Model the fold of this input.
Amino acid sequence: MISEFITPQTREDDWLRLMRITAGSGSLALVKANFWGVLDLYTTQKEMEQSVSQYKVLVQDVKRTRSDEKFFCNNNIRRVMKNALLCFCAYYRLEYMQVS
Done:
């Protein structure tokens, strides 16, 4: 199973690479990830939501993500997480899947 090869350090490196965050002079510099450009391709949020298969599952997964931690229960954080997943799937034309 692939999760056997994922350590906290490799997970962090993968996310930094995916989100195009680079370490520089002791701090992190954020560069806009390519997938946020998908926002320019759709005229409405609804149109983008319809382009992603399993959108309802995506929304439910965001609600369940670390739901016992105050930070992840914040509506603004949930909105950013949902939009990041939605944009990522729409940009790369991926079907959202729940993996256990």
Summary: The chain has a mean pLDDT of 75. DSSP finds five helices and two strands in the chain. Residues 35 and 88 are 5 Å apart (CA to CA).
